[in-house]
Amino acid sequence: MITVQKYGGSSVASTEKIMTVAKRIKHAAECSQVVVVVSAMGDATDQLIAMAKAISKIPNERELDKLLATGEQASSALLTLALHELGTQAVSLTGGQAGIITESTPGKARILNVNPERLSQELNEGKVVVVAGFQGITENATWADITTLGRGGSDTTAVALAAALHADRCEIYTDVDGVFTADPRICLNARKLDSICYEEMLELAGQGARVMHSRAVELGEIYGVNILVAHSVREVPGTLICKEDDTMEARNPVRGIAHDTDVAKITVTSLPDRPGIAYQIFHALAEANINVDVIVQNVSSQGVTDMSFTVNLADLAKAQSVLDPIMQNVGAKNLTTSVDLAKVSIVGTGIRSHPGYADTMFGALAKNGINIVSITTSEIRITCLIDKADVQQAVQSLHDAFELEKPDGPVKGE
Ligand code: ASP
Ligand code: MG
Question: Coil, strand, or helix at residue 187?
Fold first, then answer.
């Protein structure tokens, strides 16, 4: 049996915590071969980013990747030393040494391939293998560069390794008990889910729920890896992320509320309303690997229009530097930005087959006097852009409106 266990940054934030985690791994290694994926200690990644930014406003991305990858390299080596102290055979590997090959996009490289040869060999020699999460190397053997997979990317490392090794279990250990119907820090009666399907988890993660890295869930779905999210110390059952099936707990068609305050809105004013303009703008952003969301184009008058869209707050400076030079090309007047906004989303596969969810959502926000700036939807999600100051009230009122505190709430909107 092969088990992949991932420990998040807060679970290895100190040497004491590393010792606690090592004991848990030693225990697991008594009945299974174990691969451990580890995040950087505590806020080590944030500290490294802060140091880079103290030197350079927009740090060179290749160097930043190389710098950030050291966080996980340190924690993986320390955890391996802790295992040695407990008498457990173990070896640490960087992402590259573990065979993780990525595309060359710095800062958010996608995994192209995993060559698990060395991993398998080390496992067969009876060792626990501790892999530095969140990183890989590019393909070219002589010119290979170290890449990182995006913030929170250690989850993705874990699921990718579980898939490549055909592991029996993939366990993500963190500082929360599992996946909740909303963020329990801002929603009083948020409830832990026993299980959730990949599709819903993907939408929640994509809209700001920080429990899991989106790409990890995507890989889980593609390769059929069941992912258990559980607390790294407390012995409570976590949440299983798996394929949707009829045996899932009796369902409220809305599964959860996500919110995201890392939102920046960009508005381009007085754009000529003719073919090719949107393409020029969004092509430039795509080339720079910036994800764009909630796009709204106003009705045009006198041949010009305004266009607004949101990007992740971390991408704002880069987006501006990409767009500034093309403003003149496309004949736009002005580019303005706003960082006072946030997104709230309701997510559930039940939304697909029941009308009326938008009605309930907008009604709940209206009752609380919360203004909606713009709206986007997918088949199983409705997202509203609102004022950042209203987030907590919005999440709580939506949670109440959809009765998410109840394990099998009534089907709304029928
Ligand atoms: N250390 C990285 C981060 O903080 C990756 C991870 O924790 O998964 O984003
Ligand atoms: Mg982290």
Answer: coil
The residue from 281, 311, 338 where one domain ends is: 338
Closest protein CA for atom 6 of ligand 1: 152
Mutate to test the pocket of ligand 1, among 38, 68, 151, 156 (most ligand atoms within 8 A of CB): 151
Q: Is the dihedral angle over the CA atoms 75, 81, 86, 87 positive or is it negative?
A: positive
Choose one of 175, 192, 209: the last residue of a domain: 175
Decide if 251 is inside a domain: no
Give percent of the chain above pLDDT 70.
97
Give, for 406, the enclosing helix (H) or strand (E): none
Residues in the chain predicted with pLDDT less than 70, given as ranges, are 246-250, 408-414
In angstroms, the CA 229 to CA 227 distance is: 6
Q: Please write the tens of the pLDDT for every residue from 77-124.
A: 999 999 999 999 999 999 999 999 999 988 989 999 999 999 999 999
- What ligand is nearest to the CA atom of residue 107? 1
Q: Would you state the pLDDT for residue 250?
A: 53
Residue 244 has a pLDDT of: 86
Q: Which two tokens stand for residue 64?
A: 């930043």
Nearest-atom index, ligand 1, CA of 46: 4
Q: Which residues pair with 296 in a beta bridge?
A: 308
Q: Which residues contact 292 (CB under 8 A, 6 or more apart)?
A: 282, 285, 286, 309, 310, 311
Q: What is the pLDDT of residues 275-286, one digit of tens each?
A: 888 899 999 999
Residues 163 and 303 in one domain: no
Strand order in the sheet with 100-102: 111-114, 100-102, 135-138, 146-148
Q: Write down the pLDDT at residue 410.
A: 44
The residue range of the domain holding 333 is: 264-338
Identify the residue whose C-alpha is closest to ligand 1 atom 9: 151
